[in-house]
Amino acid sequence: KGEDFDLRIRVHDDKFEIFGNQKEIHVYKTRVNIAAVEYFAVRKDVQLKGVHWGGRYYNLPFETQFPGGYLRAEERVYVYGIPKGDRFEINFLAQNGDILFHFNPRFKEKK
């Protein structure tokens, strides 16, 4: 109560995977065809800060060019995922492959 939360629902053909604050909460087996779901509703006592849907399964390594050919000032890059190992990396690259920004969180290393 009173704290920010991040709730994600990953939709599969036969189940919903529910994640709260980056941790798996539960997996619900679907009882209906996913195509029958037509609406999304949030009700009751909550301050809603945003809703986003979309997504797909991404194969790694994943690379894509920014719209218009390059990253612009004041744009945002959102990366959603769940770490499956001790580390991963995100890089911003120049056209020639030079790494211009490198982010490499490591989860099991001591500080």
UniProtKB/TrEMBL annotation:
Q: Which domain of life is it from?
A: Eukaryota
Q: Which UniProt keywords apply?
A: Lectin
Domain Galectin, chain residue ranges per copy: 1-54, 63-111
Q: Which GO terms describe its molecular function?
A: carbohydrate binding; galactoside binding
Q: Membrane spanning segments where?
A: none
InterPro entries registered for this protein in UniProt = ConA-like_dom_sf (IPR013320), Galectin-like (IPR044156), Galectin_CRD (IPR001079)
Q: Which PANTHER family does the protein's record reference?
A: GALECTIN
What is the protein named? Answer: Galectin
Phylogenetic placement of the source organism: Eukaryota, Metazoa, Ecdysozoa, Nematoda, Chromadorea
